[in-house]
């Protein structure tokens, strides 16, 4: 198994998530000009409205779980020297993997947002993640002040020793995100939870446009981007 799919060594600390990782993201720049294609039409020759299924690429800066009352700025997560995923240093903040897809990107591996469940002092940022239900929304504010709204579609629990990274991070046809934290029994000897909780959510374009317009109307500005993992 490639090193980027292995659990992070940091996951041995209290309440840390497993450092499973994904490849993804595509921001290739065209190398030349191409002739524009004709707009699609129906059988009667009438223009067919374009169906937009993803957002323009912008860095995520904040995640909100409205039904849980959870809001967190997002720190940048990269790779450790051994190729495993970094985990947030601050237990009160979630982080996003900057080497994969951005939330709102089109089809491909889902974007990844990770957070702790707790530490020795008490609950951490994703302590209540298990309370999410199918149909709940996950809102990701982005650096361009738009909001990518995702709807929870699935929740699964996996043993860290048998985490199906190839399945969880496989490319998909829609724009998706995965939220991940620890769960299950706590192994006091290893100072780690035995399992991971994985929440998957799919982009809702209509709600994204609605919430993005609402931010502008309310005069809100985007939080700071490129937060270091400190």
Automatic annotation (TrEMBL):
Read off the InterPro entries from this record.
Answer: Sortase, Sortase_dom-sf, Sortase_F
> MF terms per GO, please?
hydrolase activity
> What SUPFAM superfamilies does this protein map onto?
Sortase
CDD domains assigned:
Sortase_F (cd05829)
* Keywords recorded for this protein, A-Z: Hydrolase
Judging by the UniProt lineage, the source's domain of life is: Bacteria
* Protein name from the UniProt record: Class F sortase
Q: Which organism is it from?
A: Goekera deserti
Q: What is the lineage of its organism?
A: Bacteria, Bacillati, Actinomycetota, Actinomycetes, Geodermatophilales
């Amino acid at each position: 198994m490639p090193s980027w799919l292995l659990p992070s060594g940091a996951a041995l600390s209290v309440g840390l998530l497993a450092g499973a990782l994904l490849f993804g993201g595509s921001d290739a720049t065209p190398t030349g000009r191409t002739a524009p294609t004709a707009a699609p039409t129906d059988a009667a020759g009438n223009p067919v409205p374009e169906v937009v299924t993803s957002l323009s690429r912008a860095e995520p800066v904040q995640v909100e779980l409205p039904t849980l009352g959870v809001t967190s700025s997002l720190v940048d997560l990269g790779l450790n020297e051994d190729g495993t995923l970094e985990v947030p240093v601050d237990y009160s903040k979630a982080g996003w993997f900057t080497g994969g897809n951005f939330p709102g990107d089109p089809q491909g591996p889902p974007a990844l947002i990770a957070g702790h469940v707790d530490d020795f002092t008490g609950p951490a940022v994703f302590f209540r993640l298990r309370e999410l239900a199918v149909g709940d929304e996950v809102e990701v504010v982005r650096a361009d002040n738009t909001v990518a709204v995702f709807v929870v579609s699935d929740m699964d629990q996996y043993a860290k020793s048998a985490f199906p990274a190839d399945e969880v991070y496989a490319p998909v046809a829609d724009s998706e995100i995965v939220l991940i934290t620890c769960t299950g029994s706590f192994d006091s000897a290893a100072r780690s939870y035995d399992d991971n909780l994985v929440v998957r959510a799919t982009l809702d374009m209509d709600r994204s446009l609605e919430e993005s317009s609402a931010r502008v109307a309310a005069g809100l500005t985007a939080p700071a981007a490129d937060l270091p993992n400190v």
